[in-house]
Amino acid sequence: MSLRIRNLYKKFDGNTVLEDVSLQVNQGEIVTIIGPSGAGKTTLLRCINHLEQCDGGTIEIGSQYLCKDSKAGAVYCSKGELAAIRKKIGYVFQSFHLFPHLSVLENLMAALIQVNGMKRETAEKKAMDLLVQLDLGEKARMYPYQLSGGQQQRVAIARACALEPMVMCFDEPTSALDPEMRGGIVNIIQGLATQKMAILIITHDMVFAKAVSHRIIFLENGRLMAEGKREHQFKDLDNERLLHYVNVE
To answer: In this protein, which residues make up the domain named ABC transporter (predicted)?
Structure first.
């Protein structure tokens, strides 16, 4: 087990956004969360990455607890523990969040030097190796504005991989891509899973979700409503509303 969430609750201004959400993602597993806009998908990712604090529930990364449930609500770990836990979580944002004033290579090196305290020479070699793996070696000295959307996304993935996370989160990974580029991102994410990463994705792209996932979970109104597995061709998503949503026949 790499990621375990139990009984997660989150409210904004008295409105419940996540209600009693529990799920687990194991090493080497790709789990995709689907659902309509406003279902709570992005809020869930932000809670996992501590960009939002949940109001109740437990989040466990590996053998460490980001937060534990209590009668008074979620109790968070110390700042020192938080720094260690966040190193285990990679997050590829929908808008990529690359540093525009840094080259592609420098975007990767910054994470290694500032977060891991790596020496510049070592960081440069590791960053370059990652770029080569994602067919970006020739783009190392270019800047984000000089890249296509697909290339920027691969840089963002390489940067997230640089810290060797245990859990990788993707927020709408195909939103900036042409439809014919889906296959490339499917291959990249499945390759990360073979490295024993636990992968959690949120998306509206049903073709992509069915191509990449081991499991698909349907989230609506802040609650996990159903789950389907690849070995069943996702036909175990037997809720009529959900079957229509994912177009499973």
So the answer is: 3-246
| pLDDT score recorded for residue 96 | 86
Which fold does the domain 3-96+166-247 belong to in CATH? Rossmann fold (3.40.50)
Secondary structure in 3-state letters for 164-223: CCCEEEEECCCCCCCHHHHHHHHHHHHHHHHCCCEEEEECCCHHHHHHHCCEEEEEECCE
* Higher per-residue confidence, 123 vs 184: 123
Q: How many CB atoms lie under 10 A from the CB of residue 19? A: 16
pLDDT of residue 202: 94
pLDDT tens digits, one per residue of 65-78? 999 999 888 999 99
Report how far apart, in Å, the C-alpha atoms of 166 and of each of 84, 169, 179, 201, 248 are.
12, 10, 29, 14, 31
Q: Two tokens at 224?
A: 């996990």
**Across-strand partners of 201?**
32, 170
CA gap 219, 38 in Å, rounded: 10
